[in-house]
Every structure is written in structure tokens, then in C-alpha cells.
Write a structure and sequence with these properties.
This protein has 258 residues and is mainly alpha-helical. Helix content is 76%, strand content 0%. It is globular.
Amino acid sequence: MEIRKDYRPGWINDFLVALVFLTRFPLRLNLNFGMSAVGSSVRCFPLVGFIVGGIAGTVFLLALSAYLSPLVAAFLAVGAQILITGALHEDALGDVADGFGGGVTRDKKLEIMRDSRVGTYAVVTLFVALGLKVAAISAFSDPILGFIALLTAAGCSRGMVGLGMYLMPPARKDGLGATAGKPPLLSVMFALFFSVLIPIAILGPFAGSAALLAASLLPLLMGWIAYRQIGGQTGDVLGSLQQVSEIGFLLTCSALLI
């Protein structure tokens, strides 16, 4: 990622920044953006999420059309998401689990979260998190509902990342949370608008609102835990907010739509 200061915000540029930042698509772009541009691009996080979820949902549909079992199709859909994003958010969740679970002091927790080694807390947490996703997706009796759930969950949960950046102070003076800075309120509002409008429009008022409630409460709980543990957010904490939000959304959809 190039770190420049002459970046010009705009919907197209912000979308491209969000796409580069949140995925591993082999894009060859010279946007000349610095980390401060990530804050402006927050408004496009849900839009990128819908792309990621749409691709995963398509993999789910294709796997079922090839007469694979719903469980195998769900594993392939989750695998597609991980491939597209480079396990960005899963890695963050594992780091948070290791740091919060293995550290005694605030500084030790932050040190562990930066350690590239994977501990027991990370392995167990990721096993449970991925298992919950796969179980929720494989529970859909209607393949189209599974596609819709993957699409909306991926978009909505990435909107929660911008909210976390806005509400929570950085826990350290360097790293993503500090260098990206606090996103503009208008960008956060746009992100929340997309995160709320599209799920309700597709899922309906009842199921959409219930899924949004779960997708909001879990990251709020995660944010409160992070504030108590390390005093704010880091890039790993933000990625964890996305993961727990997505899990809550999928579990709610699987309970209401199957």
C-alpha cells in the first residue's frame, strides 16, 4: 500500500481504497493514498462487503448445484471469503483472542497481539468462529436464502468497522487504529445507511431488523471488552468487530429464515 498525502477523496477513489484495503484482489492501482484516506473510505466498506459476500454466496449456490452437501457448500463459501480477504479479519480475531486471553497487563496484551505466532486461544477461538459460520450457512434449506444471508452479513458487518473506528479511541500511538485516524462522521453515517438499508430491503423488516440487532450488539460487546482490556481499538480489534458482527447476523438469519 502506497502512503502518499495527495489523495483526493471521492466515491470512486474511496471505493477503490476500500477494495484494496479489505480484499486481496490483484489490483494494479496508483491511488496515491495515505492511511488517512482509509477513514474517508469507510463509507464504502459495506459496499466492498457486499461484493465479498456476493462471491461467497455464488460459490455456495454453485456448490449446491453440483450436488455437494450443504455442509461442504458452506465450507467452500467461507473458504472463498477467506481467500478474497486474505484472512484479514480472521487473523485479527485470533490476535485479539491470544492477547486478551494470554496477557496480564495492558502492555503485555498489546505485545501479544502484535506477535505473529499463533497461540491456543487463537486456535480455539477461530475454530469456534468458523464453525459457527459454517453451521449457520449450512442450515439454510433454500440456497437463495443462504446466498442472501452471506451477501447481507458480509456488507453489514463491515459497516460496524467504521463505527468502531469512530467511537473508540486508538489503544496505541501507532498501527492502523492510530494512523487511519477517526473517520468523518458523514462517512460513518453513509456506512451505517448501507449496512441497515440493504439488509432490511432484502430480508424484510422483521428478519432484517433482528439480524441487524444481533450484528450490532455483539460488536458493541466486543468493543466494551476491548476498552476494558486495552483502553481502545487497534486494527485487530476492528477486525474482530467485523467477525463477531458477521457471526451474529448469520446465526440470526439461520434461526429465522430456514
